[in-house]
Design goal:
393 residues; mainly alpha; two-stranded antiparallel ribbon; 18 helices; 66% helix
């Protein structure tokens, strides 16, 4: 009974995550986003009741635990207010806590409902992208346009509108679609054949229309990994995926030639390099322990305590600036070990999830992992589930 409840909590999380920003915007109530916190808390509590099944942590899980501890320790040297610090803690550790719990208390239930839930969530997001393309104001309906989290902004890449669907912005949608499409070899079995192909094709088009360069990069690296490492275990599907991958690569190349300004975006590149230089110049100010969990990174944008914004759009630099060098190294090595663990044993699931992990790791160089939240939560959720069902590294 407990195991079945845990699975259904994960199902609820998978469907809620890509819809949470839109629900906050629609209702005008920021607390709606706490739905994921509640689901996670219940999941952890239910897992702890089955303490007899506690598994010895792997090296990757231990690094995740160290990172969580270092984030919490930042309370004693933070530069941010308590509420802003708590906001930063929420961003930084919750997805990792989900992964840790799934590793320490692996599920004995079939993960099939989880893949079905991802298929449904992807279908809803793709449908939202179609609606936004033809009638954008429908998704911007709200009962309080002045509320925190209202998604009323029109995002542009030069002169072209960028899609965001139900996510918090184009980059958030891009990261989610990157993750969902790299996991397509698994979840497509939960849809009728032509519906799965249609959802995948529309998802690719929506990904292109986000004009999210970080998502493109992550998808290309993850896709290359998928078609090379998975050619044996994916069978005939591998040739189909190779065709899709090469076609997408050609479309991105064509876009660079025809409309380079939509992808090059010199101002954005300049801002990133300025932030990298700032971090280097302020390394003594940042120190060994960082500024505090909520004082840097994406969470420092629009701060609750009206403090300064320290945001580089690089997951690893943002982590360093927020919680210091030791935590940043633990975070980076965690992702490297996670990638390695998925290719130690090649199956259709490990290769597909491994490609998603690798894609997000690479994308994190160019965008903060926590943009939109859904991508990192889903990647770590499925990583925890799949590794929990095999002997992990």
């Amino acid at each position: 009974m407990i195991e079945r409840s845990r699975v259904w909590l994960l199902v609820a999380l998978i469907i809620f995550l890509p819809l949470s920003a839109w629900l906050v915007s629609l209702t005008g109530q920021n607390w709606v986003g706490l739905g994921r916190d509640l689901l996670l808390a219940i999941f952890i509590l239910l897992s702890l009741t089955n303490w007899r099944s506690l598994r010895r942590p792997t090296v990757a899980t231990s690094l995740a635990l160290i990172f969580v501890l270092l984030v919490l320790v930042s309370y004693w040297y933070r530069q941010d207010s308590l509420t802003q610090w708590l906001r930063g803690v929420r961003y930084l550790i919750e997805a990792l806590l989900l992964f840790i719990t799934l590793q320490l208390f692996p599920s004995s239930e079939s993960p099939r409902p989880l893949w079905r839930a991802l298929a449904v969530a992807t279908g809803l997001v793709v449908l939202g992208a179609v609606v936004e393309f033809f009638a954008p104001n429908l998704l911007r309906m709200t009962v309080d346009a002045t509320g925190r989290g209202y998604l009323g902004q029109i995002h542009l890449a030069s002169s072209l509108t960028r899609l965001q669907s139900t996510l918090a912005g184009p980059n958030a949608l891009g990261l989610f679609l990157m993750t969902a499409l790299l996991l397509w070899p698994i979840w497509h079995k939960s849809f009728p054949k032509y519906l799965a192909i249609g959802a995948g094709a529309l998802g690719l088009m929506a990904l292109l229309l986000t004009f999210s360069r970080s998502s493109y990069t992550g998808f290309l690296f993850g896709g290359a990994t998928l078609v090379t490492a998975g050619h044996q275990v994916l069978g005939k599907l591998s040739r189909f995926l190779t065709t899709i991958f090469v076609t997408l690569l050609a479309l991105i190349g064509l876009m660079l030639m025809v409309r380079p300004e939509e992808l090059v975006r010199a101002t954005s590149n300049s801002n990133r390099f300025e932030q990298y230089q700032r971090v280097w110049e302020q390394k003594n100010e940042i120190g060994f322990w960082g500024r505090g969990a909520g004082a840097a990174g994406l969470v420092s944008v629009d701060r609750l305590d009206d403090g300064p914004n320290y945001y580089t759009e690089n997951s690893y630099l943002d982590t360093y600036e927020a919680v210091g060098l030791l935590a940043a190294l633990a975070y980076l090595i965690f992702w490297i070990l996670l990638i390695r663990s998925f290719f130690a044993t090649k199956t259709a699931k490990t290769v597909s999830v491994g490609a998603a992990v690798f894609g997000l790791t690479i994308a994190g160089i160019f965008i903060n992992h926590y943009t939109g939240q859904a991508a990192i939560w889903l990647v770590l959720l499925f990583a925890g589930v799949v590794l929990g069902r095999k002997k992990a590294v």
